[in-house]
Amino acid sequence: MADAVVTKPRWPYWLIAVLALVWNAFGCLDFTMTAMRSPEWLASLPPEVIDWLDSAPTWSLFTWALGVGGGFVGSLALLDRSRWAVPAFAVSLCGLAGNQVWQATSNMPGGVTSPGNLALNGAIWAVALALLWYAAKKWRQGFLH
């Protein structure tokens, strides 16, 4: 049996992987600075949002960390051309879903269905789903090992 042909990705692959890393690094930064209650980071938030964040159950921090951490690890795995990108992005989606449950069942200031929240959450879901789809596609095509 002949060895499988390993395909080398072209420049769009690398561009997507780098953009994914930047996107997910920002998510990790936001999580870290919010969890550490950085005064500079939180300065633009109204007091009711700070109170809402302070009332967050511990499990919601765990799901948030899974969401952003899984996306970051998945992005690094894409850059390494590792097949582990697929499960990492799947973990990210599970974390995102868990965090959305908390947002939907809590008294989120402005409400989950406010135009700003809908737009942000829609963008996050779109990118997370697209990255999982892209990683799975590249794995099937033999780009990831």
TrEMBL record:
<keyword id="KW-1133">Transmembrane helix</keyword>
<feature type="transmembrane region" description="Helical">
    <location>
        <begin position="118"/>
        <end position="136"/>
    </location>
</feature>
<keyword id="KW-0472">Membrane</keyword>
<feature type="transmembrane region" description="Helical">
    <location>
        <begin position="12"/>
        <end position="36"/>
    </location>
</feature>
<protein>
    <recommendedName>
        <fullName>Sugar transporter</fullName>
    </recommendedName>
</protein>
<keyword id="KW-0812">Transmembrane</keyword>
<feature type="transmembrane region" description="Helical">
    <location>
        <begin position="84"/>
        <end position="102"/>
    </location>
</feature>
<feature type="transmembrane region" description="Helical">
    <location>
        <begin position="56"/>
        <end position="79"/>
    </location>
</feature>
